[in-house]
Design a protein that fits this description.
Blueprint: H1 3-18, E1 23-27, E2 30-38, E3 41-48, E4 54-60, H2 63-66, H3 77-80, E5 85-89
Antiparallel strand pairs: 1-2, 1-5, 2-3, 3-4
Length: 90
């Protein structure tokens, strides 16, 4: 992903999360959900494909911190973006 694309993705995801939208996507054998739980808490959930339950794998205070997390097989969301499937914001 080039720097312009990274900047656009960060802006889109940040806007969605601050507006209490959820971002869901699949990466490898998991589904992930990024969401805002409260005024100062954003979380990353990981689900096994096809399973109904998930695990909270990260909690941060700002949406920008999500882009620094290396919780996707040791990579950040920007590093895996080209391998993400079924991404949706709702």
């Amino acid at each position: 992903m080039n720097p312009k694309e990274s900047k656009e993705l960060v802006a889109q995801y940040t806007e969605a999360l601050t507006s209490y939208h959820e971002i869901e996507f699949k990466y490898k054998n998991h589904e992930y959900s990024l969401e805002r739980e409260s005024e100062e808490q954003y979380v990353v959930w990981q689900f096994e494909l096809g399973a109904g339950t998930g695990t909270k794998i990260a909690t941060v205070k700002t949406p920008e911190e999500i882009f620094e997390l290396k919780c996707f097989d040791g990579k950040t969301i920007l590093e895996i973006d080209n391998n993400v499937t079924d991404a949706i914001v709702f």
